[in-house]
Amino acid sequence: MVYKYGTNAPAPLADGDVNVTASFERAMVANANRGGENVAPGALIGALLGASVGFSGLPPALLEGLAPSHRATIDQEVDAFVAACPLVQELAPSTL
Q1: What sign for the dihedral angle of Cα 51, 55, 57, 62?
Q2: DSSP per-residue codes, 31-82
Q3: Which residues contact 59 (CB under 8 A, 6 or more apart)?
């Protein structure tokens, strides 16, 4: 599913690149709509495509609904988690 939506966006960009933001949204919605046990695949799809698009490439519509009253706390926890990752510390210690 990640490959399907990660490489088959509905609207390619002008330079021929894949519109990864649109692919991310399509993949997440398709996974949610398939029903059944979709939590683990949703987490995997979100992680893989999210890593490829970066935070700025995530669809704003999907971010706005994420516990707005807890957004600052969630952002702090994510930042602390990323800062604690050994690979991040090894690759980019000057950016932390």
Answers
A1: positive
A2: HHHT-SS-HHHHHHHHHHHHHHH-GGGS-HHHHHTS-GGGHHHHHHHHHHHH
A3: 21, 22, 24, 25
Q: Decide: 20 and 34 in contact? Cβ < 8 Å.
A: no
CB atoms within 10 A of CB 23: 23
pTM: 0.57
Q: Rounded to a whole number, what is the largest CA-CA distance in the chain?
A: 43
Structure tokens that stand for 76 in this block: 């702090």
Are the C-beta atoms of residues 41 and 31 closer than 8 Å to each other?
yes
- Asked if 82 contacts 91 with a C-beta cutoff of 8 angstroms, the reply is no
pLDDT digit string, tens, across residues 62-86:
888 777 788 889 889 988 988 888 7
Both tokens of 6, joined, read: 């990660």
